[in-house]
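It would be a great kindness if you could assist me with a short task in structural biology. I am sending you one protein, given as its amino acid sequence and as whole-number tokens for its backbone shapes. I would ask you to consider whether the tokens describe a fold that such a sequence might reasonably adopt. The full record is reproduced below for your convenience.
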Amino acid sequence: MRWSKLFVPTLRDAPNDAVAPSHKLLIRGGFIRQLHAGHYSMLPMGWRVHQKVAQIVRDEIDAIGGQEFLLPTMHPAEIWQKSGRWDTMGEIMFRLEDRKGAPNALGITHEEIFSTVAAELSSYKQLPQLWYHIQTKFRDEARPKSGLLRVREFHMKDSYSFDVDADGLDRQFEAHDQAYQRIFERIGVPSFGVEASSGAMGGNSSIEFMTPSMAGEDDVVLCPNCDYKANVERATSALPPISDDAPPAKPEKFATPGIRTIAALEEAGAPADRQLKTLVMVLDDEITLAVVRGDHQLNLQKLIDSTGAIQVRPAEANEAFAALGAHPGSLGAVGVTGLKIIMDESLRGRTNMTTGANEDDWHFRGVDVATDIAVDQWADLREVGAGEPCIRCGSILEVVRCIEVGHIFKLGTKYAETFGVRVGNADNADVPVHMGSYGIGIGRNMAASVEANHDDKGIVWPVAIAPFEVVVIAMRLDEETLGAAEALYNELKAAGVDALLDDRDARAGVKFADAELVGIPFRLTVGPKGIASGNFELHNRQTGETSELAIADSAQTLIDAVRQAKSQ
């Protein structure tokens, strides 16, 4: 490809709303353009990278036995209604009606659809099966942002495994774990697996793959001393025991004029770890009290996972007042009836606690959780923070901001039982198939690679996914210089190197700056001085090193360098 014919609309500055480095650089480098919020056009350079990422994903899934399909993106509502996820997906799902008024959805994921195909399986002898596709997905994100990191329309590889038993599912899960690690290594995304919430996908366990980045939206709890890693939506810690609780006593009501916060109550003599923080939540239109320790924060996903609620939000002040008779700052669960009360596990057995009395400017002290509050459900609700002890080894935990780059799930028999995916086993018994689901976003990983591989000059693409592997820059357009550059370019192309010839009538500084901005790994400069001295100049984008190559050796040196980089 000649740069003079290529559409690469580079920009000096990024849009004002671009904050994440990948968003800025993919816009500035002419890789993507926004159509509207959460929807991006892939320009030629961007699509080249996107397709290379997709091919690496395809290679690694094929290597563990994957068979590629292509399933529809618009689905009839009845399939999602059958699984129950027409309701549980909530507002994240795009829904529409056809001209006959029939309800449909744009595919957010494809467990249901692959299950309808898998219903044709009949015998354990047909298993295991591993099916996948790379398809457009739609998610109605409330706040799309950060370029390709949070969008409403995107390409995802989702694969689905089908096994006769749980042991087979375990093997498929482990195979995907290893395949994903190879994928991230090849595309230049440093990653690690963490325990995660399965959320609306269901199943009994899942692993998210994370890459550290301040552009991410997930907090991950890490132990520096052992292998414990978990998303805060799943993480736990070993809280130190509190041994000085007083013996149970009758709650004492006391005046707290003007006190509305945990901190203010602490100043009044009630330590935060002896307070009950009562949060009035609305779970599927039902007022519910979620209670955590005063110095802890409620994790919404943990509340969702523990209750199965679909729509969750904090109650408005007027809703809380109608339910409890007081305003925020004076709310509590002591003596409350008629409302569901969910208590965090850290409060089990606690006595001598302080909480709101459901009367403005009044609180209770001396509260015994077991006898004074009618707890309906105990659950892990609190969000783990940095500095708490590891649940496994007791070391101090860290919290790291990350981007989720992949997620794998053990679904078990949930979808098989719903959609009749059953086979005869070796004992001639009719059994439901054990399924797994494994997702990885193509565009998101393209962006994650930029987050991990950039500098103040632009993107530093790994060779495996760079839009071009080599750019040959003709310093001048005279016959001799351009002829030498074209000869080298043609030799590289003939050897299978993805090369770009910069034959633009532009200053050398512009060509160099553009090559660095778009992140082409190797730059070979052909100029009159080099031709006269018998040398071309080679610049390595990743190391920043510049060296002289003999003209006769330059093509083979580049061919070897590209092959070596792609094999690592």
Q: What stands out?
A: The chain has three domains: 20-189+415-451, 252-379, 468-567.
